[in-house]
Design a protein that fits this description.
260 residues; alpha/beta; six-stranded mixed β-sheet; 16 strands; globular; binds ligand LYUYDEPV; C-N_Hydrolase; UPF0012_CS; hydrolase; Putative amidohydrolase
């Protein structure tokens, strides 16, 4: 599976500009055989939570149509980071994925809202795991702060997951946590973790370090970006998942009578 992670400097409160940025990066990869593309968290709006009335999608639009068109155009599954979407009287932080045939594969609403960035004041939390498949490969998805909840990720992986996608806006102040948590989640769940973070400054005092990463089921770094915006590429060998699960049979050895 060939994967492209697109980390970029999300323009605060400017969805049209952010859509144009991604579209421009996608022109760089025409005619390449790519299986999956991953975008960062809240990539249309940034954390402009006070302006969600104007910035959020309605019924997943217009971003749903854009992601669908990009998936068809690139021939890749697009795991579309996340975007704010109006939901009833409030808003959710939602990840959508579309296959190369334009079919929607996933709608996952961030479950753990990050109070340090006031998400709990402005957003409604999801309550369903993000399981989907790419071809025959079982995949899972979580969003940023969800990474700190191993019990939630275990539940996602038990639902079937060889590759876990993570979309993030994770600040530089906790870059060491970002790198360690991604590796830990890969080791304990014996799956690939593909994690895309944004770069740049949000203009409000928070800096984001990029460092998008791909980790294999043994916890080794397959690819890691630096702070610069752009593509990170990785090719992953899915057979490694079963190899690692055979070597240390963690899933067989769980004591589910003691915990679920
Ligand atoms: N956008 C987020 O959920 C940020 C999470 C974060 O920074 C953390 O330390 O956790």
């Amino acid at each position: 599976m060939k994967i492209g992670l697109l980390q970029f400097n999300v323009a605060y409160g400017l969805p049209a500009s952010n859509r144009a940025t991604v579209a421009k990066y996608l022109t760089e990869i025409q005619d390449q055989a790519i299986d999956v593309i991953l975008l960062p968290e809240m990539w249309t709006s940034g954390y402009a939570l006070k302006s969600l009335d104007q910035l959020a999608d309605q019924d997943n639009e217009p971003t749903g149509t854009t992601l669908r068109a990009w998936a068809r155009q690139t021939g890749a599954t697009i795991v579309g980071g996340s975007i704010p979407v109006r939901q009833g009287d409030g808003f959710v932080n939602r990840m959508l994925a579309f296959g190369p045939d334009g079919q929607q594969k996933l709608s996952y609403d961030k479950v753990h809202l990050f109070s340090l960035m006031e998400e709990d004041r402005y957003l409604i939390a999801g309550n369903q795991t993000g399981n989907f498949s790419i071809g025959t490969v079982p995949c899972g998805a979580v969003i940023c702060y969800d990474l700190r909840f191993p019990e939630w990720i275990r539940k996602t992986v038990i639902g079937g997951c060889a590759v876990l996608f993570v979309a993030a806006q994770w600040p530089t102040a906790r870059l060491d946590h970002w790198r360690l948590l991604i590796q830990a989640r890969a080791i304990e769940n014996q799956c690939f973790v593909v994690a895309c973070n944004r770069t740049g400054d949000d203009g409000r005092g928070t800096h984001f370090p990029g460092h998008s990463m791909v980790i294999d089921p043994w916890g080794r770094i397959v690819a890691e970006a630096d702070e610069q915006p752009g593509w990170l590429w990785a090719e992953i060998d899915l057979e490694q998942v079963e190899q690692v699960r055979r070597t240390i049979p963690v899933f067989r050895d769980r004591r589910t009578e003691l915990y679920s």
